[in-house]
Amino acid sequence: MTKRLVILGGGESGVGAALLAKQKGYDVFVSDGGSLKNNYRNDLEQAGIAFEEGMNTEEKILSADEVMKSPGIPEKNEIVRKIRKKGIPVISEIELAYRFKGNSRIIAITGSNGKTTTTALTYHICVKAGLEAALVGNIGYSFARQVAEDPKPLYVAEISSFQLDDIHEFRPDIAILTNITEDHLDRYDYKFENYIRSKFRIAMNQQESDQFIYCADDEITMRYINQFDIHSNQLPISMKTEVNKGAFIKDGDMYVRTGEEFTSMSVYDFALKGKHNQYNTMAACVAGATMDIRKEKIREAVQDFQSLEHRMEPVATIRGVEFINDSKATNVNSTWYALESMTKPTILVLGGVDKGNDYSLIKELVKEKVKAIICLGADNRKIHEAFGDIVNPIVNTGSAVESVHAAFHFAVKGDVVLLSPACASFDLFKNYEDRGNQFKQAVKDL
Fold this sequence. Notes:
- By secondary structure, this protein is an alpha/beta fold.
- 35% of the residues lie in helices and 22% in strands.
- The chain has three domains: 4-91, NAD(P)-binding Rossmann-like Domain (Rossmann fold); 95-304, UDP-N-acetylmuramoyl-L-alanine:D-glutamate ligase; 313-444, Alpha-Beta Complex (Protein-Tyrosine Phosphatase, Chain A), CATH 3.90.190.20.
- It contains 17 helices and 20 strands.
- It is globular and about 70 Å long.
- It catalyses: UDP-N-acetyl-alpha-D-muramoyl-L-alanine + D-glutamate + ATP = UDP-N-acetyl-alpha-D-muramoyl-L-alanyl-D-glutamate + ADP + phosphate + H(+).
- Residues 310-423 form the Mur ligase C-terminal domain.
- Its EC number is 6.3.2.9.
């Protein structure tokens, strides 16, 4: 009998899963409460996959043998509750992709911050070494679409906690947990521990032959790691202690050891600057070393890596004022890292949709480095409350253009205007890329 798979959500992961499931002989139905983007609608029509948009028809959904839930849909959603109540198994898109990956290997990266950079650098190391790999997950194509359309022997996947919530068998050969900070608490009943448990699920199914790379300097990771039954080979990274296996940085040099072999290189050769990027680079190098990639190749890749768009991306310098696009900073910790690396007086563009942010985390840095705050969001009260007593002026703006003009007005030669919003972008923009692109355009139009 054909298995009926219902997919909730018709975005990249939902449509990717639909295409793969259809190809593998499932009876597939896609349901999206909102409207589908044209390209996704076309994908489904071309593949002959039944779908609905603007509604979730209960009888069609609750007749499923299995449901794949898109990561953006919370557990408290009414239809999700009914699916759970009926006891229909729920999986995530990475679980479905994992079922059909064949003998391919997986390097999976999760964490609150740094995961996109670490994923991109790990992929770059693999490609430099001549491995045939694909970049999937939250960066690039969905994992399921890649497996359906262009399978590869190696997948480098960026994975969110939401995707890990609904895995059962998913097992990466190499798992990286960059760090854990308070993020997305709105999705975890505001219980930090629930979010922490989600992150550790990345190592849940790993076996002794697999590798688990984590940051030994991350307080929360270390506080919780012993509560989980981890069977894989643990490879910590640190700047504070010399670890026997994994990687550490001492006196400006990075040392990596995963087996008998030992590699070292100077942090001054890293293409990525800033302390947080030294952690990202260490994690990627350890992953590369466990794949038996030659150290010359790893060194080369780390030196010529191009940083990502919307992540501390230099836009332009206008009349001595430098503009930086860090639109990808969608939580307070990301903004903390951005501010920490600032060496000039900073005008900070902040705001958007707040996911339960605690701004006290950046208060000290703001006091030390920020001369003006430009709010870019529909509701900026919390920012005024957090920084009103230490920064003057704090100005409200309602568009990227307005924010850039206001920032430029307060800036003098030698200042930096930093877009590092600490918030999601959905109030005024399509997504963080759209926010970053509008910001860059506004700077270029000055």
